[in-house]
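Subject: design request, 494 residues
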């Protein structure tokens, strides 16, 4: 508990006085029958005369976010989950004892108010209280009204305060919930089954990423927080669940920046008998459904740039994008040493383990990705960097894989799944070799997954979409921390 904070001390004194008056600081429950939004819907169109003639009494509850005192009366605004409403507390209406208790209540306290509606001289819909009850005493002051909670680090660390005082923040998270709900409805309408797969895995797989490690005492074994659900979802397709999706958390032991948080939400879906071309078409349908349903348009503004979601979206091979958008000469893209030299000139880290394909993707991330504003599919990813993707029949050095970019960010990754168990074993072995050579993000050998492929995975298309980045786009949020309730941050003082 903080000491020597005069505001907190003053509030504690008020709390003690209320206790001595017999007022419970933290009573159990209340039964409001109307929210602020419902009040506006029901009574917002009624004039003063109609309200005066309406004897209905209602109970409302919320947090006091403003108050104006006038001796024997006060105006307050209370805030609930739906919005704000004004209430008028008058000594002669609520009684002497209740009014004395009300005078000891502060901005930030949670109260229950019962009364009837009327209009003030300024025509504001207002609840005239005949009863006011303290429901929760707030011992800490909210940020000052005009300056609010503006320090971003404090906002992220104390999201509960951020949500109280910044209405726009609440709107972002309400939109997040609606986005996830809409995605679920989209896939359920298409006969997909929502499933859950393990968060703790004996072998982390499904993505090239460094995992978090833990230890299970009872089983006496190491476990990893999953980096992706992919290999388990495809096991389900082997088992005959031909269309599955999961919306859940992934964990990657990586850096934190505007686009990355070590714990994040992914949508992954798999569709038997589909190809990566069908996954791209499904992506167009999904995003157009989201923006038109939730925003009412196929265009949106993101960080000052207009994004048009109208299909069809461009589909550009990786090599072509590097040449046409990145300005890289074709000869460089066929010579590992030349590509490595260009990367070093651009101060892009390159190791001796990196083949030409890996270097090309690093050049792409630097030269092309930030320039892809409107939705764009990049196809033809190198086999070297795609250990779970089916090789292209036309060019085995590339795969039937795409990544989707919107607003200069990678939003999705999808491909025709590799279902040849022998090829998969060779790809895993390459990853094992890279791991033994020092690449901590390389994947592990997963014998059980290979065994599942030996039972037969039908031709399948699959895709993963970053939910947090989708929410960033649809809420015009510049940082992933703005769309995660409690983003991970360094401990204060470190």
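Subject: RE: design request

Done. Sequence follows.
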């Amino acid at each position: 508990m903080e000491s020597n904070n005069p505001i907190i001390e003053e509030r504690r004194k008020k709390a003690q006085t209320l206790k001595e008056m017999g007022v419970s600081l933290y009573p159990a429950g209340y039964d409001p029958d109307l929210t602020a939004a419902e009040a506006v819907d029901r009574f917002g169109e009624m004039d003063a005369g109609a309200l005066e003639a309406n004897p209905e009494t209602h109970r409302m509850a919320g947090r006091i976010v403003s108050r104006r005192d006038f001796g024997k009366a006060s105006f307050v605004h209370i805030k609930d989950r739906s919005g704000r409403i004004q209430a008028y507390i008058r000594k002669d209406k609520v009684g002497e004892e209740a009014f004395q208790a009300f005078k000891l209540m502060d901005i930030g306290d949670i109260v229950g108010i019962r009364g009837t509606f009327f209009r003030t001289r300024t025509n504001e819909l207002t609840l005239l209280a005949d009863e006011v009850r303290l429901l929760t005493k707030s011992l800490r002051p909210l940020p000052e009204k005009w300056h609010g909670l503006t320090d971003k680090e404090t906002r992220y660390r104390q999201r509960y305060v951020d949500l109280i005082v910044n209405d726009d923040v609440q709107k972002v998270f309400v939109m997040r919930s609606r986005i996830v709900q809409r995605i679920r409805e989209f896939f359920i309408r298409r006969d997909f089954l929502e499933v859950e797969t393990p968060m703790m895995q004996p072998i982390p797989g499904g993505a090239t990423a460094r995992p978090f490690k833990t230890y299970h005492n009872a089983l006496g074994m190491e476990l990893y927080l999953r980096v992706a659900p992919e290999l388990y979802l495809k096991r389900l397709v082997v088992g005959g669940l031909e269309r599955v999706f999961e919306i859940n958390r992934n964990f990657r032991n990586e850096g934190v920046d505007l686009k990355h948080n070590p714990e994040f939400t992914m949508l992954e879906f798999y569709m038997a008998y589909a190809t990566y071309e069908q996954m791209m078409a499904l992506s167009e349908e999904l995003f157009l459904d989201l923006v038109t349903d939730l925003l009412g348009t196929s265009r949106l503004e993101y960080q000052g740039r207009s994004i048009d979601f109208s299909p069809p979206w461009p589909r550009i091979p990786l090599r072509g994008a590097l040449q046409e958008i990145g300005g890289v000469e074709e000869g460089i893209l066929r010579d590992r040493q030349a590509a490595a030299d260009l990367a070093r000139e651009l101060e892009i880290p390159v190791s001796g383990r990196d083949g030409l394909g890996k270097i090309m993707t690093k050049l792409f991330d630097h030269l092309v990705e930030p320039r892809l504003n409107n939705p764009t599919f990049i196809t033809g990813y190198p086999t070297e960097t795609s250990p779970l993707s089916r090789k292209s029949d036309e060019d085995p050095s590339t795969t039937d894989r795409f990544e989707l970019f919107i607003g200069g960010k990678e939003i999705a990754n999808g491909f025709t799944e590799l279902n040849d168990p022998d090829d998969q074993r060779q790809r895993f072995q390459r990853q094992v070799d890279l791991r033994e050579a020092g690449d901590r993000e390389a994947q592990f050998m997963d014998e059980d997954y290979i065994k599942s492929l030996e039972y037969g995975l039908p031709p399948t298309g699959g895709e993963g979409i970053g939910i947090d980045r989708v929410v960033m786009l649809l809420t015009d949020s510049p940082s992933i921390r703005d769309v995660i309730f409690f983003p991970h941050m360094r401990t204060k003082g470190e």
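Residues 136 and 319 are 62 Å apart (CA to CA).
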